[in-house]
Design a protein that fits this description.
The protein is an alpha/beta fold. The protein contains 8 helices and 10 strands.
Amino acid sequence: MNEAASIDAKNGAPRQGSAPPLVELSNVSRIFDEGAIVALDKVDLAIGMGECLAILGPSGSGKSSMINMLSGFDVASSGTVAWNGVPITTQKSWAKLRGSQIGIVFQEFNLLPTLTAVENVEMPMFDHGISIAERRRRAVEALDMVGLDGRLNHLPFRLSGGERQRVAIARSLVNRPKLLLADEPTGNLDRANSEHVADLLFGLCAREGTTLVLVTHEEDLARRCTRCVRLKDGRIVSDTATASNRGNGRHDAR
């Protein structure tokens, strides 16, 4: 199956045989400055459909590079990144995946200040042949899912930090992605808003069956996931089930 067929296949899965991981890194390295900086060092990571995975590690451990590999925003120096068992090698294929099957929540919200909440949520649907009326319907529905149906026409500066992050979550979910990547989604929020946003992410993913990959430095947040991967110096040093999922435990990385 080629890249386009993999992306377009019904339910995002091959038609024959057992289902491969939703996304998989195989012997992936990311090197900068002609080898002076090794952000990822021969990483192997397979993430199945419906998993809830936390990625932890100190600053400079490779967490951001891992997210960039899983989203296709960066290209591996060596190794392969596969979606449903098919290596994805072109930016066109990655862009198509991000537009239809990968949602991303950033720490900095990344909302356009001149667009209302509902207009910001509509953005991922541009250039995908979706009518204006359907874009608006889906955006309103997504904002209702995160409890912001009363803030549709508010500009970002009129929203609290927690509300802006919820708009960002609605935007990431509007295309009903199979994979949701959340990069320090509570990093800029106070404790109350952090807990609310975390509850929202875990609740939505549980209901929708979405695969969640959460980059965080917060141990309490990581323990709410069913699997925890720890990075150090660009390598996976452990890959274990959390206390809530010990029955499906994984062994520490060798």
